[in-house]
Hints:
The longest helix has 27 residues, at 529-555. The strands form seven sheets. The chain has a seven-stranded mixed sheet. A five-stranded mixed sheet has the order 3-2-1-4-20, with helices on both faces. By secondary structure, the protein is of the alpha+beta class. It has four domains: 1-79 and 377-414 and 607-630, ATPase, nucleotide binding domain (Nucleotidyltransferase, domain 5); 83-90 and 268-373, CATH 3.90.470.30; 98-262, Glucose Oxidase, domain 1; 419-597, ATPase, nucleotide binding domain (Nucleotidyltransferase, domain 5). Helices cover 30% and strands 31% of the residues.
Amino acid sequence: MLIRTVVGVDIGNSTTEASVARVGTDGSVRFLSGALTPTTGIKGTAKNVDGVAAAVGRSMSDAGIPLSELDLLLLNEATPVISGLAMETITETIITESTMIGHDPRTPGGRGLGIGVVVGFHALSELGGTSSAAGPGESVVVAVPAGEDFEVVARTINAACARGVAVTGAILANDDAVLVVNRLDSPIPVVDEVARIDAVPEGMLAAVEVAAPGQSIRTLSNAYGLATIFGLDADETRLVAPVARALTGTRSAVVVRTPSGDVGDRVIPAGSLHLIGALKRATVDVSDGAAGIMTAVRRVGPLADVVGESGTNTGGMIANVRQSMADLCGHPLTEVHIGDLLAVDTFVPQEVRGGLAGEVALENAVALAAMVRTAHSGMKAVADAVRERLRQVGAERIDVVVGGVEAEMAVLGALTTPGTDKPLVVLDLGGGSTDAALITPDDAVVAVHLAGAGDLVTKLIDAELGTGNLELAEEIKRCPLGKAESFFHVRLENGTAQFFDSPLPTTAFGRTVTLGDSGMSPIPTRHSIDRVRAVRRAAKERVFVVNALRALESVAPEGDLRRIGFVVLLGGCALDFEIPELIADALAKYGIVCGTGNVRGTEGPRNAVASGLVASYAAQSASVGRSVGA
């Protein structure tokens, strides 16, 4: 019996995996080692050579076999797939003239609600007594410019109160609220860090509210509370409703309104999508939200192409994705089409236009992920380039063969997971796309490729938390959270406590932190641990759970999920600490056995395609051997 050294290589969107085995002509297989390296270039292009060579070299070294003994390398049929993302804001809060909504500084001072006419700090000393500007008992809110010493501010306010001026609140440019309040004879609510203090209009009615620590304001976040304070009618109350919405959940706020000031909440033209299906077409406006877009996608399915409205972010994103694929593959732009589209509702922090202190409101937005896929494979060119590279480094007798369709190889590898049987569905959870393949009891394979996976989750977390840092958002996605409550213990997100023998880093104290393999990393955000966790889980549910159900409905016999016996999760995202649980919970009601794959009983959710390539080759060798023997 002839024994050959064979390596199966899976070129994925993010990683390249290799599996080394000894294969006999009788179909016997003995797996020796595996390796994982980052994919170089776009999957299915000649730039993959460096990643393939690294994976093969590492796996052969781990197996203790020199490259000169390598006989055959099997590549998957890696068709290029490119995904693109766009974030479309569909509403915007606009403030005109001198209306101001208060931001939420870290350390406001005092507590309660103060209502009064805005007066400048330098004019405060003139009030009281016989002053005609403001008599004894008249309520005022003081606007203090930058550069004023907090002790001077406190003394001036105390003196004004002693003269009979009712100072009910203060607005400070400096970050001095607590220092000022600590020196007042009668504490008042104070909001600080108002950058554009010079734009606060004097002589107009204002309201300042500060809640107790751990609580949020009640009056200024209520549209009817604003109407009561400013004497608004029904139409004016409707106009200031966005102000109340923007202030919900904050600990402090300021609202100043002139008679001509106006606040509006308008829909921004977010562009439209023209969906082209095999039999139907539809046009849907992005402002209809994710539900409207996905309803239209299902209505025209299967999707053949998507065209975005020119001059919008949506149109630009789709055009860029299509152009990138055309450039990579050398195909005319007319031959590259959008194969799938996923829309997800989210919220994006947007600076309020016309605000005076950098106020931010959470506005409705739609995240779009689109995927293009070419029908033309460039794997022959990849195979030739890999053969040449490996022969240069010692694998002189190697032959490189494109070994099989990726979906079929994935299910063959997944079937080596202990406890599985047909019918079985593989869910490959990657970075740019979610791929699914069904193998039926008679070995027929059906596959589907959907846009949206780990990269979209990262972008949703980044957008909703306003981190402005995709690396930080990626870490939040991958790691559980904790809150450093002392220098020696962390309160975990599940409510339990973890204690340490040595003190924690000072940068972590009092902060929400990620608990990764490399240690504890503080998150530079003011969001609570519960808020960060809720955003993380919601993003995963809206992408992975939604795409898992979409994929299973596409490959299940007659769309009936109850006819699927087993679902095996593969790919990097299957190693996530909560994604498998979220998907399993969603599939439990269909009686589906769902879990993270364990390829060959040793590899976990990795190496399925590479192992499937080797298993397929071994089966073919056995079939040829039997034919020769007959």
